[in-house]
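User: Hello! I'm new to structural biology and keep hearing that structure can be predicted from sequence alone. Could you demonstrate with Germin-like protein? Please show me the input and the output so I can see what each looks like.

Assistant: Of course. The first part below is the input, the amino acid sequence of Germin-like protein. The second part is the output, the predicted structure written as tokens.
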Amino acid sequence: MKSFFHFMISALTVLAWATHMACAFDPNPLQDFCVAIDDPKDTLFVNGKFCKKPELVKADDFFISGINIPTNTDNAFGSNVTNVSVENLPGLNTLGVSIARIDYAPNGTNPPHTHPRASEILYVAEGILYVGFISSNIDGNRFFTKVLHKGDVFVFPKGMIHFQFNIGKTPAVAFASLGSQNGGIITIANTLFGSNPPIMPEVLAKAFMLDKDVIQHLQKQFGA
């Protein structure tokens, strides 16, 4: 009986250790890539940003102004995004949050895109927006959509392709909170048709089931 008791204690100890090991995980990426390097003297980047010495930190490191100012939406999409991320607000480093202001002209759109490192909460400050996101292939590519008015909030889960479109007759404004200091953005059309160097037209023609000439036209439109 005594040996059985010791056996059970040992088994539970091993199980607890294994569970602890199974719960371990790699740190989340904070940029598109962070390639390993053998020689430290050639190191240029870390996963995120280097930290300032605490005694040198100032209040201005946590401050930025101007997000209340409307921006120019005179472009092909009729929208403009003002990002507040670790790139222009250093105090966000390691905090896992950021914010953006989006201005939309009437019929303006923030075209289909994804944030590879962040979920997004969108708050409509002015106007009427048609918004939506599409679930993954495994979930059947389901389309979740809503018409939002002033004061409404909508959530876009991490990594899901989503968009906003101003269906009102006046300019619209929204504020997006992101669960990363650098959520990243992949605008679907720009990425596929404007990559550098360009993707072979044959690949995209096959993927979209379009003629090669159509793909080449799209690549010219997006600057590839």
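User: So the tokens describe the shape?

Assistant: Right, they're a compact way of writing down the 3D structure. Reading them back into a model, for example: Strands lie at 79-84, 98-104, 109-114, 120-126, 129-134, 143-148, 153-156, 161-166, 172-178, 186-187.
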